[in-house]
Amino acid sequence: MAEALIALGGNVGDARATIAKAIAVFCDGDDVVLLRRSSDYRTPPWGVADQAPFVNACITVSTALTPPALLRRAHSVERAFGRDREREERWGPRTLDIDVLAYEDLVLHEPDITLPHPRVLERAFVLVPLAEIAPDRQISGIRVRDALARVDSAGIERMP
Q1: Which of 31, 72, 99, 146 is catalytic?
Q2: 78-127 residue pLDDT tens
Q3: Which one of 37, 42, 73, 94 is the catalytic residue?
């Protein structure tokens, strides 16, 4: 079993409930086992500013799936919760977004998946929840907590 870092987010409908349900579906207990879950965080929109705030969370999982299979599972769960990647605006509103951030220390560049996620170390909305559950985890040789110290996390609030 390999360890993977996963980010979840959304800003359409009850995003907190969607994320909680999506984690339960994604982590089936067989091929994907939940190890740790961050708190939920309210985050300012990124990419397209004129939209509702997002709710973001991160999880650490143990998985028997290959990275491409794990990504296919993520996309399947997104579709089950109403996401249509083909018709949505890039970085726009969405019911659910699930990203594979890292898979062990694997570096992978394939047409459908790049690991680690190419922008993971630039995005406070990912690094804040990730630092809660894996502050010392290294991605591309940089500790998550150190990457977080380099980005602007203004406006990100831990939800009760």
Answers
A1: 99
A2: 999 988 777 777 777 899 999 999 999 999 999 999 999 999 999 999 99
A3: 94
97 is catalytic: yes
Catalytic (active site) residue 36: no
Range of the domain at 118: 2-158
Say if residue 156's pLDDT is above 80: yes
CATH number at residue 49: 3.30.70.560
How much is the mean pLDDT over the chain?
A: 95
Task: Specify the amino acid at residue 41.
Answer: Y
Which pTM value belongs to this model?
0.95
Pairing of β 32-37 and β 138-139: unpaired
42 is an active site residue: no
Number of domains in the chain: 1
Closest CA to 32 of 56, 58, 4: 4
